[in-house]
Amino acid sequence: MRFGIVFFPTVGPADKPAPDYFDEALRLVDLAEELGFDHVKMVEHYFFSYGGYSPDPVTFLAAAAGRTRRVRLGTSATIPAFQHPVKLAGKLAMLDAISGGRVDAAFGRAFLPDEFTAFGVPIDESKDRFVEGVAAIKQLWTEEDTVWEGTFHRFGPVTLLPRPVQRPHPPVFVTTARSAESCAEAGRAGHHLQTVPNVMSTEELQERLRIYRAEWAASGREPGTERIHFSYPCVVAPDGDRARELGRRDDARNTAAISDAVASWGSTRSSAYPGYEKLVEATKRSHFEDKMAAGKLLVGAPEQVRGQLEQIAAWFGDDITISLGVHSGHLSFEDAATTLRLMAEQVIPKLGSEVAEQR
Fold first, then answer.
1. Residues 6 or more apart whose Cβ sits within 8 Å of residue 103
2. Distance between CA atoms of 55 and 357, rounded to whole angstroms?
3. I need a labelling partner for 37 at 20 to 30 A (CA). Which of 175, 228, 236, 339 fits?
4. Distances from the Cα of 55 to the Cαs of 46, 58, 243, 254, in angstroms?
5. How confident is the model at residue 182 (pLDDT cuts 50, 70, 90)?
6. Cα–Cα dist 14/32, whole Å
7. Is the pLDDT of residue 110 over 90?
8. Which phi-psi region, left, alpha or beta, contains residue 329 (left: φ > 0; alpha: ψ -120 to 50)?
9. 340 neighbors 28 (Cβ within 8 angstroms)
C-alpha cells in the first residue's frame, strides 16, 4: 500500500475563514513531504461548504508544488464539463512543469445539480462532456497541431504550451462513485481508478474492482500496472476513545455539509444519474457507528487503525493506494498533524510487510 493525503474542505466562512483553512492545509502538505507520504490531493467543488473552498484544485496544488520537492500532486478530481479542454490541459501541463513532473490528473463528471445549473451545462450531458474532455486533453498533451472536432468543442490546429514534463502525459485517473460501467470504461481506456468506498458496500466495490482489473488486462495492458486510489476520512489519536470522539464530530459536520449540497436532488431527475434522487434520504441515514462497523472510516488508536487497514487489504488487495482525509476543517491543525505523525510512525511501519510497501 501507498499512503497520501486528500483535502476535501467541508467548511464555510461561518466555520473557518478561507485563508486560515489554506494556511493549515499547506502546513500539512509540508508535514506530508517531511514524513514521506506519497501524494497530496485537492478536490473541485463550488458554492457549498461541501468542497466549496476549492473551486480550482490546480491553484492549491501549484502552491503545494512551490514548497515541496518529492510528493506527488493530484487533482481529486477536476471537472472537464466545467472548463474548455484547452484551458484545463494547459493548466495541468503548467503544473506538471512547475512541479518537475509530479502531477496525477484525475477527472470526474461532477454530480451536484446546482453546479451544472451555474455553469449552464445540462446535467444529462455530463458523461458525454467528460469523455470528450478527457480525450481532447490527452490529445493536446501528446500531439502537435491538434485539431479537435467534437460535439461540444472545436478548435485547431493548435500546439499546447508548455508541454507536460511526464511522457506521454501525466497519469490519468477516472474518479467514479458507483457506476460499474464507468469502472469498465476506465479499464478499457487504460485510465487509473479513483473512488470513495463510503458510497457503496464492500461487495459492490469488490465487484467493480474485479470488472476494472479484468477490462484493464483484456485491453492488452499488463495486470498489476493499474493504479487504484481509495479515499478514507482518517483520525488517529494516542487514545482510541479520543479518536472516536473527534471522528464522530468530524463525520457529523461532513454529513451535514453533503446533505445541504445534495438537497437539489430532491427535485432533480437525470437519466445520467440513476438513483441519485435517493441521496437526500441516504444522507439522513448516515451514522458514524454504522460507517465504523462497515469499514468506511479509519478512526482509532494506532493499533486499531492498523487492523482496519489490514482488513481493507484483505478485502481489496494490498496494491491499492490510500488517500487519507485528515483535514476537512472542523478539527484543529494539531489533530490533523497528530494523525499524520501517528500514521507515519506507528501505523504504516507496523503493518504486515506485504501491506506496508511505502507511504
1. 61, 72, 73, 74, 75, 92, 95, 96, 164, 166, 170
2. 33
3. 175
4. 5, 9, 30, 18
5. confident
6. 28
7. yes
8. left
9. yes
Three-state DSSP at 321 gives strand
Q: Is 34 helix (H, G, I), strand (E, B) or coil?
A: helix
How far is the C-alpha of 236 from the C-alpha of 103, rounded, in Å?
28
Residue 177 has pLDDT above 70, yes or no: no
Taking residues 228-247, report their average pLDDT.
Answer: 97
Cis upstream peptide for 168 (omega within 30°): yes
Find the mean pLDDT for residues 53-80: 97
Rounded Cα gap, residues 320 and 224, in angstroms = 10
Domain 2-350 has CATH 3.20.20.30: yes
Q: Using the structure block, give the residue that is written with the C-alpha cell 492549491.
A: 60
What are the boundaries of each domain within the chain? 2-350
Which residue, among 165, 167, 130, has the nearest Cα to 151 in the 3D structure? 130
- Res 39 pLDDT > 90: yes
